[in-house]
Amino acid sequence: MKTFKKSMAIILSILMLLSVMTVAGISASAADEDNATDTSVTEATEVTEATEASSETEPTEASSETEPTEPPTQMEPRSAYYVVGSVELFGTSWGDTPHDPANSMELKDDGIYYLTLENVAAGNYSFKVIDTIKGSITWHPDGMGNDGKVSVTEDGSSVTFAYKPGELAGVVAVNEVPTYPAPTTPTEPESEPEQVENTTAPIKLGGVADVIFTSNVDKTTVTTKYDTSRDRTFTVKYDLRTAEKLLNGQGTLSYNRQQLKLVSFSMPNIPNAVFNTELADRVEFNFTDCQNLYDFTTTKTFIEATFEFMTASPTYVNLSFEELNGTGKDGDVAYVTDGAVVTAFGLSTKASAPTPAPTSALKLNYTKVTKKAGQSFTLAVKNQPKGTKLSFSSSKKNVAVVSSNGKVSALTKGNATISVKIKSGSKTVKTLTCKVTVSNNPKIKPAKTLTVKKGKTGTIKITGKAKAVKNVYKVNNKKIAKVTSNTSAEKVKVKGLKVGSTTLTLKVNNKAFKVKVKVK
After folding, report:
1. Tens of pLDDT, residues 124-162
2. What region, left, alpha or beta, does residue 197 occupy, with left being phi > 0 and alpha being psi -120 to 50 degrees?
3. What's the rounded Cα separation, in Å, for the pair 253 and 241?
4. CA angle 93-99-102, nearest 5°?
5. N or C of the chain: less Cβ packing under 10 Å?
6. Which whole-number Å values give the CA distances from 489 to 30, 251, 401, 485, 504, in the listed order?
7. pTM assigned to the model
8. How many CB atoms within 10 Å of residue 60?
9. Which tens digits make up the pLDDT trace of 45-89?
10. Is 205 helix (H, G, I), strand (E, B) or coil?
11. Which SS3 state, helix, strand or coil, does residue 319 take?
């Protein structure tokens, strides 16, 4: 930590010297003067300030302006400094009261203010420095200003902000490695090369990243998961199949540059292709050959690209065609549309893509249930892998039925087994079962005879009725009586039409009941 603070102080000194040189208007020729070259880095600020004050046309104004600049040698500052920004990082946003003691910067003996945050989660954060008297302070003189950014790539990191008043010189470090300003080739301390090497070391990643591969040819979308602590790189292949041989075309492979870095790009089956991999967030390509057509009538690799993970965040890779031309049977050029298919899939160069959770971890929330007729419950799979689907079925639909979302309805007395298949595409990963016992049958009242007057309506009440199942009824003599209620209701209304008697057969939850209907 001692070496780290020393490095921070050196970087701050360099920034201060560059800032003062710019203000003083020192040119390249003036830099050769003896009084400038003999000044050390630590004394440069005071000497330059004296020169600047003497060069002013009105010395009284120059001396009055030295107070708000707050020289770095001032041990008792006239104001306090706080770091604010993203709520996730600081607990307070720019619009809130910024003077939170937890975010205050502490003045050390080297004249530099420090604030270190521990156990910071991976993410991209915004920040700026607040002066209790002046208000907002520009953190860096070359453009970051109040819009400062800090990127953390590993959970549990430490983030340090160092600030030296007066010259607006600042350093941001993650895990004691400065991220701003960018390290340059050092001329002073021997420890500086180590900083350059550290900043170029491989980023430590951890977590599962979703990579979405898309294409605008047939709206293909494929999502693949990668364990970024293990799969540092991955290769995506876009396979193409066309109805005609290709004559020429052009398009773009775009990607999220904040999360991915392009390692390699090729079009293995189009030797005359021209492409530009120097663009920041995309590769533009084109090809044409009027003599040797490119045969993609059978599926072949069209584009192959390898990327390196920069963060463990969700990201995307997208292939889009601006033009894709082929030749028809008569030799004329035609736009290839019918039969054009692009299939995207990702392959890790270090290991296979992460496998789903072990099948032993897949469990149902219920494995054995007893219910009365008319009652219901819903099955769910614990630890269900993302991207999988569930398929439900019942061994005895007259005892219990199950919907597509796992809701089980008890119908009539008996036993049934509900099977749940966990599917990845067309492949069944695992089948789980739940045994269901229905303890009784639904009941109707009156159970045997319903008597109604001609022109009037009688009611049959049903208990233990599953709402998901409709009643089925049949009247033997429709001239004597008819059913007038909704067939899925728990009350069945019967209207008497003609004096006499007939039989009503009513199925409730697939169980049949016969009721004699008398009309007086």
Report:
1. 877 777 776 655 555 544 433 445 778 888 877 888 888
2. alpha
3. 18
4. 85
5. N
6. 98, 60, 18, 7, 16
7. 0.36
8. 8
9. 443 444 444 444 444 444 444 444 454 444 444 567 777 777 676
10. coil
11. strand
